[in-house]
Amino acid sequence: MTTEAKTPDKTPLLERIPYQAILLGTCAAIAAALLLGVDNATREPIAQRKMEDLQQSLAQVVPDDLHDNNMVAKPLLLKGADGKDVTIYQGTKAGKVTALVWETIGFGYAGEIRTIIALDPQGKILGTRVLSHKETPGLGDKIEAAKADWITQFTGLSLGNPPADQWKVKKDGGQFDQFSGATITPRAVVKSLHAALQFFEAHKAEMLEVKP
Amino acid sequence: MSTDYKRLTRDGLWDNNVVFAQGLALCPTLAVTSTATNGLGMGLATTAVLVVSNLLVSSVRHIVSPAVRIPVYIVLIATLVTLVDMALNAWVHELYKVLGLFIALIVVNCAILGRAESFASKNSPVPSMVDGLMMGLGFTLALVILGGVREVLGSGTLFASASLLLGKAFSFMELTIIPGYKGFLLMILPPGGFMALGLLLAGKRVWDGRKA
């Protein structure tokens, strides 16, 4: 008679399964709400900061007196050789294109080397800087402008100067120095710059047209 | 009832040091300690997160079921770190550029979950915060020592580019210990981290053994 009677549930609240499910759900919901709120609040400032960073790197390769527009305002999108979009920033002065800047990526010893390259309308290099890389500290990192002036030797060069068979590191029969103990890194940078110059040659017309 | 804060301090800084005694958080430890400055940055960022996560975990300890506590803590910590990451990126961008790398790594720092589990979930908020602070400072200490050893042996400097992290006023910390040093690359690379850590661990054991 007593065996089947309703016995009050003696399990403590914390050990009941529904409580635990609700607890986890509430936690996740609060976390999601917080993340959503802060993401909303920070999205604009973060985009703004990224823009400023970009402007700073552009300023490293394009002198201020060469353009009178905001170079990041209206970027041009072109299809790269690998099918991906390449974002091109135009510097204009008095309505004419004076500088073209975009990012070119090489594959070094330890992953991507992102380099920013600036060309004048004739295709001569105004300047290049390595933006980020994961090369070996002390060996491959001489591609950074802060560590060595290797990267500045490209200023003034173009697709035909030096000729194509010289657009290589010395070890491959070209004219650019490699570093002792690191050949792959400079080879990757030289190759990506050469590819960027070829890209300019192929898309000259579109790139030199001022984006309205 | 009274908490032995002296004990907490001793435990965090030395006896039960996250790296040197518990052997936790070795992944971020070895990854970032190529310089003393990096160690300091990682250590301080971790300390801040540890104090707040201990406080949060301790305040909810009575409503969290033991069975689901780990997922709850992980959601808490991951949310906290992500919020800090977004907020710093948006509003303290200069600091973020230096610390940003470390903040993402904190999520995977098992020392934080370890303290939540072994201390904060069993103690009231104030002692938990003290524990977080001391464990964090102990972690910072370990990282700075390890980074310092590797930096001096690897590149002959100490606290290089500390002014980027702490501001111009701290540029006096940037020392050149061995002038004209050519560098010992191995110490900066990951194997050097393992070697330096091994030697430091052995050193601590010898030190503690002598006193006992």
From the structure above, extract its key features.
heterodimer, A: 212 residues, alpha+beta, 2 domains, 5-stranded antiparallel beta sheet, elongated, B: 212 residues, mainly alpha, two-stranded antiparallel ribbon, 2 strands
Molecular structure report:
Chain A is an alpha+beta fold and 212 residues long. Helices cover 33% and strands 20% of the residues of chain A. Chain A has two domains: 13-47; 64-208, no CATH class. Chain A is built from two helices and five strands, in the order αβββββα. In chain A, a hairpin with a 5-residue loop joins β4 and β5 (125-132). In chain A, 27% of the residues are buried. The model of chain A has no long low-confidence stretch (mean pLDDT 87). Chain B has 212 residues and is an all-alpha fold. Chain B has one domain (5-211). Chain B has helices spanning 5-15, 26-32, 36-59, 69-91, 93-106, 110-118, 125-155, 162-166, 185-188, 190-211, and strands spanning 157-158, 175-176. Chain B has a two-stranded antiparallel sheet with strand order 1-2. In chain B, α1 (5-15) runs parallel beside α7 (125-155), α3 crosses α4 and α7 packs across α10. The A-B interface holds A 14-15, 19-20, 23-24, 27-28, 31, 34-35, 38-39, 41-42, 45-46, 49, 52, 136-139 and B 34, 63-68, 71-72, 75-76, 78-79, 82-83, 86-87, 89-91, 93, 155, 183, 185, 188-189.
Q: What topology does this entry show?
A:
The complex is a heterodimer of chains A (212) and B (212).
Chain A: H1 17-61, E1 76-79, E2 85-93, E3 96-108, E4 111-119, E5 125-132, H2 184-208
Chain B: H1 5-15, H2 26-32, H3 36-59, H4 69-91, H5 93-106, H6 110-118, H7 125-155, E1 157-158, H8 162-166, E2 175-176, H9 185-188, H10 190-211
Antiparallel strand pairs in B: 1-2
Helix pairs in contact in B: 1-7, 3-4, 3-5, 3-7, 4-5, 4-6, 7-10
